[in-house]
Amino acid sequence: MSNPDSGKFDASQFKIDQRKNWDGAAVGWQKWWKTAEDGAQKISDKLVELAEIKSGNRVLDVATGIGEPAITAARIVGKKGYVLATDISPQMLAIGRERAMSQGLQDIIEFKEGDAELVDLPNATFQAAICRWGLMFLPNLSIALSNIQKSLVSGGKFATAVWADPSKVPLISLSLSTVRKQLNIPAPPPNVPSPFSLADVDMFTSTLSQAGFGNIHNESVEVTFEFNSPEDYVKYTQDISAPIKLMLANETEMRREEIWKILGDRVRIQYAANGGGSVRFKNEAICVVGQKR
Questions:
Q1: What is residue 164's DSSP assignment?
Q2: Beta strands in the chain (DSSP E)
Q3: What mean pLDDT is predicted for residues 29-41?
């Protein structure tokens, strides 16, 4: 595994690790899909709106995971349209295909394995491109953005969502900070992809501009995720958090259970209704849209 603490970041090894980690978390994402989408659907809808996706459009979805926002876009473009959904994880894509088929969208969405930097995309083909919470994990963002930009028709729009800084995203930061503190692991340096690596909006929009996008604007969107109990949130995190699975991989079962209990106690104290009931996390996502120049 690439070691961010060594000062030398190996992008190629990072991608290998990432594919393995997302493959390992795919079943967890399938299990918790409804819980996640109850909150995240708001962002899929916002991206479709910002990208001005219409019936009959050809749309690219980058880092689709198990199928969003590709599925939301497919419902809009309809049978006269087309959605190409790409992701680095074949296991996530397999679940996405199952979901598309279950909703009768298999003839509209094509799922294709490949990382955003290298995946072969047709030039000047898509009216719109979208990406929900995926760009933060790309080690060579500028290359990926250029690849996306080239695939768009002139004037085509790219809408994406990233997370704000950790203090505004307790859904993710609470568990990461708890585990890092218990294991004495520092937060990743700025050059290492993480859920919060694009929280600096000015820097991110500058990168978009350099990749050939203009008319760039952004807006903050509040996203709420709810769980029946602190225990539910802990189970969700155990099942879907690839970074935490990696951090805990070499710990004993007893130590892992101890850390999960500490996390559950933090959630109960800080976020649970009446000390043990339902849990609500209010988070800030940043939605950014640009147009191919």
A1: -
A2: 58-62, 82-87, 109-113, 126-132, 152-163, 213-227, 279-292
A3: 96
Strand partners, 287: 161, 219
Judge residue 107's burial from the number of C-beta atoms within 10 Å of its C-beta, 0-12 exposed, 13-18 middle, 19 or more buried: exposed
What CA–CA distances, in Å, run from 167 to 170, 171, 227, 236? Answer: 7, 10, 20, 20
Whether residue 5 has pLDDT greater than 60? no
CA atoms lying within 13 Å on the CB side of residue 186: 9
CA Rg, the chain, in Å? Answer: 19
Per DSSP bridges, beta strands 58-62 and 82-87 are: parallel
Written as six digits, the tokens of 268 are 């109960």
Rounded-to-10 torsion of CA 38, 66, 135, 51: -70
pLDDT digits (tens, 9 = 90+) for 148-196: 999 999 999 999 999 999 999 999 999 999 999 999 999 888 778 999 9
The verdict on whether omega for the bond into residue 166 sits within 30 degrees of 0, i.e. cis, is no
Question: What is the pLDDT, as a whole number, of residue 41?
Answer: 98
Supply the CATH classification number for the domain 4-292: 3.40.50.150
* Cα 126 from Cα 138, distance rounded (Å): 21
Contacts of 182 (CB under 8 A, 6+ apart): 258, 259, 262
Report d(CA 11, CA 83) in Å as an integer.
28
* Distance from C-alpha of 150 to C-alpha of 133, rounded to nearest angstrom: 21
CA 224 to chain centroid, in Å, comes to: 16
Q: In what order do the strands lie in the sheet with 213-227?
A: 109-113, 82-87, 58-62, 126-132, 152-163, 279-292, 213-227
Write down the pLDDT at residue 275: 65
Sign of CA dihedral 83, 89, 90, 95: negative
CA–CA separation, 172 and 289 (whole Å): 24
Amino acid type, 264? G
